[in-house]
Amino acid sequence: MTTMKDVAKATGLSLATVSRVFNGSEKVTEKTRKTVLKAAEKLNFRPNKMAAALRSGKSRTIGVVVPIIDIDVFSSAIKSIESYLREAGYHIIICQSEELLEKEGQILENLLNLQVDGVIISVSKETLNMNHMQELQDAGISIVLFDRRLELENVNSVIINNFSGAYRATTHLIEQGCRRILHLAGKSSVSIFRERQRGYESALKDHGLPVDEHYVFPLDLESEASLDHLRYLLQQDPAPDGIFAHGDYYAFGALNILKELNLRVPEDVAIIGFGDSPFCAYLTPPLSSVNQRNEDIGRMAAEIMLQELNEADHARVASQSMIPPEVIIRASSQRLTD
User: Fold this and answer.
1) CA-CA distance, 184 to 312, in Å (whole number)?
2) Most distant CA pair in the chain: distance in Å?
3) What's the pTM?
4) Helices and strands, number each (H, E), in the chain
5) d(Cα 12, Cα 15) in Å, to the nearest integer?
6) d(Cα 131, Cα 105) in Å, to the nearest integer?
7) 96-127, pLDDT tens digit by residue?
8) Rounded to an integer, what distance in angstroms lies between the CA atom of residue 76 and that of residue 328?
9) What is the DSSP letter of 284?
């Protein structure tokens, strides 16, 4: 295996000079740099960047942990994070927790062993506290939360205003004439889903409509019993005339059942989702949704991470950056015209 010593020998330069070239030092001339790089190419020598990182104490690598990689809310954020950090000279390691607390803990332990400089993470649905992240904090590794958050000291987070998005989505249905609005709710242990339910309930109250606990339904798309219960609710008299789903996939599932029951959308039941996934515009009818601005969240999380890495003292009061969402109106919820 070719070593840096072989490059030094081939160029007649000192090992220290060759090392400075590969470390990006400004103390070498352009002529010397070209000589070393030409010799390295001829000898097929590639510097061990990990070893250099261990010596310097900086890996210039950021771990990015998400619950599920292949859904838009996370894939779009990852794309934005990678692009922003790459321009700053950092690489990312992408990890998937699969919504499992145990796997999330194993991932963080591996990232600690790899000596990453920081971790940008959206926690799993099972994660109720940050005890398993304490080791990262103790090691001085920066942590930035995105999309989902926990109440933590000295940890910054970036989320959208889930309350506002849900409030505005529910208000839109009310403005379209809906008076019995069903909420397909998310897991109550997850803060963003609690906020969406709170926004839904607040919109009803502010418009003088009752909050019916039977109209808050945690739909499970993989449970036939859960789907049957939705069918049951939609066939009551009076039946729901509007649906606000905490996520687009749940709105999509509801759309299929509405079609199965021969209920017209939006005439019989108007529906709006949350997330504005790419498929929303291609459904029949196209699905209204709340745009979560995933790329903006990813970019801001990366910006905050770089700010932390450039600060000598990471001790601070945690801040939360909240991005306003955008309600995208399509045919699935638009009954009235101006």
Assistant:
1) 45
2) 90
3) 0.76
4) 12, 12
5) 9
6) 10
7) 999 898 999 999 999 988 889 999 999 888 88
8) 18
9) S
